[in-house]
Amino acid sequence: MTTRRGFLAGLVAAGALPTSGWADAGAPDYLAAALFPDGSYRLAGLRASGDMVFDLPLPGRGHAAAAHPSRPEAVAFARRPGRFALVIDCRTGQPIATLDAPEGRHFYGHGVFSRDGRMLFTTENDYDAGQGMIGLWDATRGYARIGEMFSGGVGPHDMVLMPDGETLAVANGGIETHPETGRAQLNLPFMAPNLTYMELDGGIEEQVTPPPGLHRNSIRHLALRGDGLLGFTMQWQGDVTTHPPLLGLHRRGSDPVFLAAPEVQQARLQGYAGSVAFSDDGSRIGFTAPRGGVLHLFDVASHAFATAHEIADVCGLGAGPSGFFFTAGTGLTGRLGRGRPAGVAQAGCQWDNHLVPVA
Amino acid sequence: MMRVFALCLMVLPGVTLAQTPVQRAVDVHILPGFQALAQQTGALKAASAVGCTDLEAPYHQTFDAWMGVSHLRFGPTEVEDRAFAMAFWPDTKGFTPKSLSALIADQDPVVRDPALFAEVSVAARGLFALEFLLYDDRFASGDTYRCGLIRAIAADMDRIADDILADWTLSYGSELTTPGGDSRYRTGDEAAQELFKALSTGLQFTSDTRLGRPLGTFDKPRPNRAEARRSARSLRNVLLSLASLRDLAALLSEGHPGTAAELDAAFDRSIALAERLEDPDFAGVTTPQGRFRVEALKNSIDEIRAITATRLGPQLGVAAGFNSLDGD
């Protein structure tokens, strides 16, 4: 049994040290949005023990969040095509600032801070142009909007800061949407997802595109290992009767590698992968597939499929003590070590989409 | 076209009332729909071979037939992007006029070779490319190359319609009706859920895209984004899609009379609103009154969607997980 201290030591080794600032907010290990039984959408702070250390109201359905690297501040993003993001002081539960998407933009639901916490980056849609953008916000001046840059593609979704602290990795899903047509996908025949590495000023350093047969595999979510290995999950928009890989690994300067389970298990995923995470020791990578109600695990070194675990409506996933921590739409939170998944708590809420580590 | 058509005629007499909703959907909804499409594309191809004037009637008849099946977006229509090659819309970046202009400017000989033309961008093929060539001032003036292009598009559509029909007739129909074994559907529930998904996605497309795109926002209505507005059939497409989706909804709700009645009444309201609209290309969205009426139609379709999701879905065993339905 890994202790909390041991788990934290693991995080330190991975280069992600929680600071005292977050201790003031109950020292959550993760942030997650949820729908509560009273109908309210809230952002919760969770410990790997399953304890909920806070839950703070949101104005609408959330998606992911960004945790400030030192201060106990969280930015909770609306689910796309939302136009709000709320900066919350997690000690008091009070909103500190509101991010309103500028005219002609909406958020995609993900964002990330610069290493020093002075700048916030958000994935956005310039919907009249059908182009992805990264919004820049100054966290030292009340989260003022200070600029934007091209995301390198269409439909940017998840984004991470690379270990060098000077490069962003952006998952450009490739799917064009417009708020006037809801979540309708407007460009499937021509969609071209990519993984874009860019400097913090927007200079594109490297782009990775799936091979031709996989161009309808929308790259959505990312997981980063301390050594810069990037894991990405995809959502298949092509023929539903084929079952392409939904997980990839990429290291800068190399070709991407695509990982799939045997056909029968792969078919169960219904072409849809949710969150992705490396295990605490980085030796395994897992992703959740809420439509299939399964979590797939792979060995990172050999790329081999390890196993599938059935967990109803599972979606949020992060590194946790001795492996992974997960949340599900059923309210369950649990741990996954080397054996079978073990529930640690059953909340009354429905956990939404993502689990964001508090670093 | 005749080869496949003959095969279908042999399949149809098997219809009996003891069949499952999925079997009946294949027999009375899907196969007749794709048969009608193949028939109309055949007629369009034949007419274009005679000449490139007076093609409006076969164009409209083909489009009408497409509206009977355009919601059946799984299996045979998704092979080699056949559905997109039949009807590439919406076209947010204007690929169709750009691709057509490029073919015309180059006098690209690809129009003389059906195999090569099948490799041309889906934006320059199908009903919407044809609509530009027949109705848009930039393309509608006749010359020899334009006529060759029209013939190539018509022949390509006929080939695609035949291929879709052949796949449905020869294999996909039985995969859907006899799940398990080699079928990609493990159970009858999975097959019913595929049809349920076609129904709900079809309703969503008509509401969000066919109506949502021209509506735009109150400050910025977008009548130029209406589907097939050049041939003034935007409203007609909404009506025909509703008729076809109603047909499918009735088949899927057969065993659930309460839901069936609710759906029927909701479709009645939508279709009545659409019939009273008298705005064939949704140009009226720029006036408050016209906009209000299109919005009312959209809301009525969203009511059908709500019944479909909350009543029919659970009855067909469609899981309603918080995350599994999120799609993000």
From TrEMBL, chain A:
Coiled coil: none annotated. Residues 1-25 form the signal peptide. The keyword Signal applies. Pfam families: DUF1513 (PF07433). The keyword Hydrolase does not apply. Keywords: Signal. This is DUF1513 domain-containing protein.
